[in-house]
């Protein structure tokens, strides 16, 4: 970067002072908050996020340094403008998984398939990953799969949950073809995100200082009937680090 493109030291200092002012205003708004969805708190949050972003950029451009904090999503979620007392709501959920153990997944699907009297004779739908996934998600509720994902050979990834307000409930079937296309971001009451990226800044320190405790193995009643080609898991295999939860108002 050329010297002409760099901000001055005074500009960086002014941006730092703006962050301090925004931080004081945010704390004052929180202390005076009138409820969970106080618009003054939301506005102060956005102002603090914007000031921090400007300071971070100027600090990097001038000194090649970054700040140790991050406020994600500040520009992505606009202020709530929905009804004060919603008569209906929609809950939008996305959970990502990686198929970590395909053989375990297909073994569970074969058990379900074998117990289904209506299954087509000789059709080994569970013999493919996509077929096994169809059987698994057809048999269990999404929340149960989320709580038992390791048992099914899945590895949990990012997830998000949005609660949106509505004036009245949607007509049955009207949104099923495109469930996320009609989301009004300004009617989002609250949002909760879980992501491994929120753990990145802690990984280096935690790896040296934390020794994970052993966890119990899978439920024996479920594992004894699995196909023999599924790798056995030991009782002393540690779980991964817990993911942190971030909530955006």
The secondary-structure element order is HHEHHHEEHHE
Strand order of the largest sheet: 1-2-3-4
Strand content: 5-15%
Mean pLDDT score: 77
Number of strands: 4
Taking the alpha carbons of the first and last residues, their distance comes to 37 Å
Taking pLDDT < 50 over at least 5 consecutive residues as the criterion, the unreliable ranges are 209-246
Written account of the structure:
The structure is a single chain. With 249 residues, the chain is an alpha+beta fold. The chain has 7 helices and 4 strands, in the order H-H-E-H-H-H-E-E-H-H-E. Strands 1-2-3-4 form a 4-stranded antiparallel beta sheet, with no helix packed on it. Helix 1 runs antiparallel to helix 2 (39-63) and helix 3 (102-115) packs across helix 4 (129-139). The protein is flat. The two termini are 37 Å apart.
Question: Any descriptors?
Answer:
single chain, alpha+beta, 4-stranded antiparallel beta sheet, flat, 249 residues
Write the layout of secondary structure elements.
Blueprint: H1 9-31, H2 39-63, E1 88-99, H3 102-115, H4 129-139, H5 142-147, E2 154-166, E3 188-194, H6 200-209, H7 220-223, E4 245-248
Antiparallel strand pairs: 1-2, 2-3, 3-4
């Amino acid at each position: 970067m050329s010297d002409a493109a760099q901000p001055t030291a005074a500009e960086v200092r002014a941006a730092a002072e703006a962050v301090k002012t925004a931080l004081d205003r945010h704390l004052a708004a929180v202390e005076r908050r009138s409820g969970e969805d106080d618009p003054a708190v939301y506005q102060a949050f956005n102002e603090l996020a914007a000031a921090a972003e400007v300071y971070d950029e100027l600090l990097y451009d001038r000194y090649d340094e970054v700040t140790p904090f991050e406020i994600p999503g500040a520009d992505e979620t606009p202020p709530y403008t929905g009804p004060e007392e919603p008569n209906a709501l929609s809950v939008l959920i996305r959970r990502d998984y990686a198929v970590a153990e395909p053989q375990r997944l297909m073994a569970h699907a074969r058990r379900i398939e074998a117990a289904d009297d209506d299954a087509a004779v000789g059709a080994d739908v569970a013999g493919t990953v996509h077929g096994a996934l169809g059987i698994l998600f057809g048999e269990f509720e999404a929340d149960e799969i989320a709580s038992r994902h390791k048992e099914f050979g899945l590895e949990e990834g990012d997830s998000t949950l949005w609660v949106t307000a509505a004036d009245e409930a949607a007509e049955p079937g009207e949104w099923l073809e495109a469930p996320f296309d009609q989301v009004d971001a300004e009617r989002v009451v609250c949002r909760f995100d879980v992501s491994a990226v929120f753990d990145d800044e802690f990984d280096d320190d935690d790896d040296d200082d934390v020794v994970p405790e052993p966890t119990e193995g899978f439920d024996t009643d479920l594992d004894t009937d699995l196909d023999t080609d599924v790798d056995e898991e030991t009782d002393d295999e540690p779980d991964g680090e817990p993911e942190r939860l971030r909530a955006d108002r």
